[in-house]
Amino acid sequence: MPWIRACEADDIDAEDVIRFDYNDHTYALYRSPDDQYFATDGLCTHENVHLCDGLVMDNIIECPKHNGRFDYTTGAARGAPACIALKTYNVKVEGNFVMIEID
Amino acid sequence: MAGSKGMVIAGGGISAVSAANALRDEGWSGAITLISDEPHTPYDRPPLSKSFVTDAGASVPYLTDQLALADRKIGFIQSTAIIEIDRQRSCVKLSDGQHIFYEKLLIATGARPRRLTLPGSDCSRVRYLRTVDDSRAIGQQLLPGAHMIVIGGGFIGLELASSARKRGASVTLIESLPRILSRGVPLEIAQVVASRHELEGVNILCSALVSEIVNDTDTISVRLADGQTIAGDLVVAGIGSVPETGLAVAAGLAVENGICVDAHMQTSDPDIYAAGDCVSFPLASHGDMRVRLESWRNAQDQGALAAVNMLGQCRTYDAIPWFWSDQYDLSLQITGLHSGQDRPIRRDLGNGAFIVFHLDQKGCLTSASGIGVGNAVARDIRLAEMLIARGVHPPEEQLVDGKMSLKALLKAAAVCPDLSIAASKD
Q1: What does the pLDDT read at residue B414?
Q2: Domain total of chain A
Q3: What is the pLDDT of residue B422?
C-alpha cells in the first residue's frame, strides 16, 4: 500500500478537517484537538456529501447535510442518519508532511 | 416478555422508520408493526422535489428495504389505511378488516398538501407533491419546452421550479404575498433565492392572486385576479401542508394545529405517542411555545425519541429546529426560530455566502439563516444551533466578522460543548 504525501501538517487546523483528492478518490484528513492526524473516505456514507464542509468536535465529524455523525478516529457511525461506517486510512507525519496510506 | 401486543407505528416516512429502528436499538424484542397507506416500502421525501424529480431514471429513495425490515423483525403493512384507533381495546382497525393490538401506538402520519379551493382547481391536472407517485407524475410532464405553473413561493414550489429548469421546462411561479419565502426566511436570503431563480429564467409573480383554474383540452391556465391569464402544461400547487390528524381527532385525542404531544411526544392518551409533521409540541428553546414543524430532522429525531419513551423512559425533546433547502447549486439552512421583533445581523462568509442571525431584545441568539453555494454555510449554522441551545448572548462584533470562529465563541460560552456526549445519546 503506497504512502502518499497529502498536505503539510499546518494545512489543517486543530479540531478540523480538509479534503484531499487523489486518483479520482476523495479523502477527508483530520487533525484532532490533541494534534493527532487521521484520514477517512471523504464522502458521507449516507448521501455522498463531502465531509470536509462538516463540523469537527472532539473525535466526531458531522456531515454538513443531514448531521450524520462519525468517529473519525475509527470510522464508526455515531448518529442517525449515518449507519454505515466510514473507511479509515493509516496516517503518519513525516517531517512537516502528513502522509496517508491508500489502497 | 412482550406478550401478544406489540408496538404499532402508523406511517411510512422518516419518523416512523426512525422510531422502528430506535425500538430495536433500545432492545425491544416484541413485535413492531409499521402501517403505511402507500404502496411502497418507506422512502425519504426530501429528494422528491429535487434529484428524484429531475432524473427520470432515478430509483426510489428508499429508507430501508424488505430484507432489512425482515432482518430486524419489523413487520410492514403497506397499501393499508388505519381506519380507526380503538383506545378501549388498544387496537387499530385497518382498511382490510384486520385488528392489530398495541402495547403503545405511535402516530407518525405526517402532513398532506393543502389543496386549492378555487373555481376549476378540483381537477386531477392540478398537482401536489407529497408522495413518490406525485413526484413521478410531475417529473413525467417536465419535458424540455413544457411550461409549469407553480402556485406558491414556498420551499416545495421553489425546489420544483429549480428542478424544472434543470429538465429544460419553463416555469412561472405565482406568489400571493409581496415576496417569496415570507414564512420564516429573512428578506435578504429570500432576495438571493428570487434573484437566482430569475437568472435561471423563472418568471416570479409576487402579490398575484389566483382567481380560477381553467382546463382546456391541451392546456391548463391560471387566471389571476387582475385579469391576466397564464397558460401552461401543468399546474403544481405548493401552498403549505395540513397535519394528518384525522385518526387522532376521531379517537378523541387533544389536537391543536397538529396532534398535541408533551415534551416526551406523548399524546393525551398515555399509550399513544405522536411524532413529526403531524404534531404540535412545546418548543423548549422558546419558552415551551407550541409549534408544529415541517422538517426532516425534526421528524427523524422525534420518532427516535418517542420510541425510547414508548419503552418506559422519560426523555425530553429539546432540539433546536433545523431545516434545509437545495435549489440549483445553492443550499439554504435555517436553525432556530425568530420573531418579528428580533434584530437581524449579517455575517458574510465569502463567495456570496452569508448568514443572517437574529437576536432578541436581551441579545440572545434566536435563529441563524444562511445561504451559499454547496455546503458553505453548514458549519456555521450547526455551530449557531449549539449557541442557541446554550442560550448564548454572543458579542455582535464576533457574529458579524466571518473570520471569527463561531466554534471559539461556543467554547468560550460557560458550558463546555461536547458533541460526543450528544452523539452517544442517539
Answers
A1: 55
A2: 1
A3: 36
Q: Rounded to the nearest 10 degrees, how much is the dihedral formed by the CA atoms of B216, B219, B222, B226?
A: -80
pLDDT at B3 over 60: no
State the Cα–Cα distance between residues B215 and B347, nearest whole angstrom. Answer: 48
* CB < 8 Å from B in window 36-95 of A: 49-50, 53-55, 57-60, 62, 64-67, 69, 78-81
Q: How far is B223 from chain A (nearest CA, A)?
A: 39
- Residue the block writes with cell 500500500: A1
CATH code for position A61: 2.102.10.10
Interchain pair A80, B378: CB under 8 A: no
Residue of A nearest to B332 (CA): A65
Q: Where are the domains of chain B?
A: 6-112+242-310, 115-239, 329-411
CATH number for the domain running over B329-411: 3.30.390.30
Q: What percent of chain B is modeled with pLDDT above 90?
A: 89
What ipTM was predicted for this assembly? 0.90
| Distance from C-alpha of A100 to C-alpha of A34, rounded to nearest angstrom | 19
CATH architecture classification, B6-112+242-310: 3-Layer(bba) Sandwich (3.50)
Give the mean pLDDT of B146-168.
Answer: 97
CATH number for the segment(s) B115-239: 3.50.50.60
DSSP symbol at A86: P
Q: What is the pLDDT of residue B216?
A: 86
Which of chain A's residues have a Cβ under 8 Å away from the Cβ of B417? 57
Q: What is the pLDDT along chain A (103 residues), one digit of tens a residue?
A: 799 999 999 999 999 999 999 999 999 999 999 999 999 999 998 888 999 999 999 999 999 988 899 999 999 999 878 788 999 999 999 999 999 999 8
On chain B, the residues whose CB falls within 8 A of the CB of A59 are: 420
Q: Domain range for residue A15?
A: 3-101
